[in-house]
């Protein structure tokens, strides 16, 4: 199950929700509005969720608005009770059924990833951009490291330029910007790698 909440034209929405539902037969729920987002999460109980760091931070701030960070931290440190509290927090956010949580589109603070891990949810980092259809790198369950965007996806070539810039190329990489050869030359190398 997935919850669709990003604009339908957003590359992450297209790749994770649209392609995920077509390719994997996933059931898609749609968020009614930003005001009903948490209620929509509870209704959908997604098993797969992609969120930008801002969404994951908003969830955290919502929890902190109901329980001070220090109190939650103390409870999570208790061996058995900590696990129960973590599950209850995730259920309150509609995240209790999530098996695959992804975060991308911007750098995510390590402390935020660790906070979710303490609740019992591993949020995996992904890397991609509109210019490569959001298809580049993804952490896999059990193989993630905080601050690492993961292994390159099948068919994705990656290299580091002499200047230290990460460059990727795959069949999903754009040919160029429409009628914008100068901008295209800024982001694509002569051999088709995306900067």
Automatic annotation (TrEMBL):
Recorded GO CC terms: membrane
Pfam families in UniProt: AMP-binding
Gene3D superfamilies recorded: N-terminal domain of ligase-like (3.40.50.12780)
InterPro entries: AMP-dep_synth/lig_dom, ANL_N_sf
Residue intervals of the AMP-dependent synthetase/ligase domain: 1-178
Molecular function GO labels: long-chain fatty acid-CoA ligase activity
Record-linked PANTHER family: AMP-DEPENDENT SYNTHETASE_LIGASE DOMAIN-CONTAINING PROTEIN (PTHR43272:SF52), LONG-CHAIN-FATTY-ACID--COA LIGASE (PTHR43272)
Protein name in the entry: AMP-binding protein
Organism (species): Aquicoccus porphyridii
């Amino acid at each position: 199950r997935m919850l669709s909440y990003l604009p339908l034209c957003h590359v992450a929405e297209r790749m994770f929700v649209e392609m995920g539902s077509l390719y994997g037969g996933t059931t898609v729920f749609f968020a009614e509005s930003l005001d009903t987002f948490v209620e929509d999460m509870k209704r959908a109980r997604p098993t797969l969720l992609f969120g930008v760091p801002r969404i994951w931070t908003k969830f955290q701030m919502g929890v902190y608005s109901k329980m001070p960070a220090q109190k939650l931290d103390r409870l999570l440190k208790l061996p058995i009770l900590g696990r129960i509290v973590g599950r209850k927090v995730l259920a309150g956010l509609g995240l209790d059924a999530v098996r695959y949580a992804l975060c991308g589109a911007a750098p995510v603070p390590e402390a935020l990833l660790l906070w979710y891990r303490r609740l019992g949810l591993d949020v995996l980092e992904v890397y991609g951009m509109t210019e490569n259809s959001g298809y580049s790198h993804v952490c896999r369950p059990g193989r993630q490291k905080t601050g690492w965007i993961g292994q390159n996806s099948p068919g994705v070539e990656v290299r580091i330029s002499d200047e230290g810039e990460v460059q990727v190329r795959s069949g999903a990489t754009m040919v160029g910007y429409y009628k914008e050869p100068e901008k295209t030359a800024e982001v694509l190398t002569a051999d088709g790698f995306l900067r």
